[in-house]
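We store chain and fold; thus.
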Amino acid sequence: MEIPLTPPDSPPMTLSVSELNRLARETLETAFPPLWVRGELSNLTHAPSGHVYFTLKDAAAQVRCTLWRSRAQRLGLTLRAGMQVELRGQLTLYEARGDYQLSVESVREAGVGHLFDAFVRLKAKLDAEGLFSAEHKRPVPTYPRGVAIVTSPQAAALKDVCASFARRAPHLPLLLLPTPVQGDGAGARIAAALDRIAALAPTRALDVVLLVRGGGSIEDLWAFNDEVVARAIRRCPLPVICGVGHETDFTIADFAADLRAPTPTAAAELASAGFHAAAGELAQLHAGLRRALQRRIDAAHQRLDRVAVRLTHPRQRLASSRETLRNLERRLALAMDRHRQRLAQQCAHLAARLGARRPAPARYRPELIALQAALQRGMGRQLAQRHQHLDALAAHLTHLNPEAVLARGYSITRDDGGRILRDATAAPVGAAISVQLHRGSIDAQVTAQNTTPETD
């Protein structure tokens, strides 16, 4: 806490003793969070009120300590003068006497530090195995059918959990699996209770498990740091919510569980969160449904009003229809008259155009006679030209006819395969040949070859 300072030019601020001690206490509590201190107990006093007062000292210093009755009852440890302890407390100041002191929250024997070391080693081992991996965490159902509670029947945590469910989800069936949560063998008993859930879940319609216990010292919570409990949590077929101790307490079970709650009551709230939220959502849906229904009713009323305005007596509807029919009849007669007049005008116009374009053969007869004479002359010239061209082609074809060449004394010589011979070397001596003449042919045999030398 910041202490206000007066400006240099104003008179110094004067505090009462009460204000001084209050500011000192607030400053101490703000500057120092709860911490662990080790020392020897002395001047131990058990007050009739149940509070315990003592001094914690070492070889060079000492500090007054107060252990309030509510915490002393849960301590589970008998304090003796001369005992070496480690205590966790909040540094404060007793304003009435101005005594600087520790408000003790928990106490453990000085040798209990090995429990924390064991906790750290086990946490590292299980974490390395992937037991705490987020990918193995199972989601808690939004609307569970039933809840299994693993705790002691005498635990205050059970009452808190039941009260929370009664307030938030009174319809939800709860099944208690009683087990000790502190002392020798508690860890194995807790693990056995968790293993029983696999057989109970199908028949009792269980969907989630609550593992709960109130706060305490590290020794009180040690059962939840047991390896068998952590492995039983992971074997459990249902998601497990762990609510052990207070917000500052962490156990191995917290890390192994599918969901950690800071307190047993918070564990119950997490398990019933869906039903609790559904109540609010249901109220919103109810209000929305009422508004939607009201809108529908209002719209229906408007439609009814419009229909009522349009609703008339059948006699009036018939009279209106007759009037409409008469109007349509008059409009149809007028439209047919206009259409008939338009067609008559079109017919007269077309008749005039047809009369203007009627053919006059006598006027075109001289022109037709002249065209006929020109056509006959042109056809005569074309026929004469075609006859001359045809005679020339016939003479040329006759000149190229092989028969005409043979008639002039030439012949065609073929080998025995019918191929025409053009070179004497193509017919070896002794080969059979045929000679085609103008009239008939001669079969012969080659007796000699007379070749003519090639000339360039």
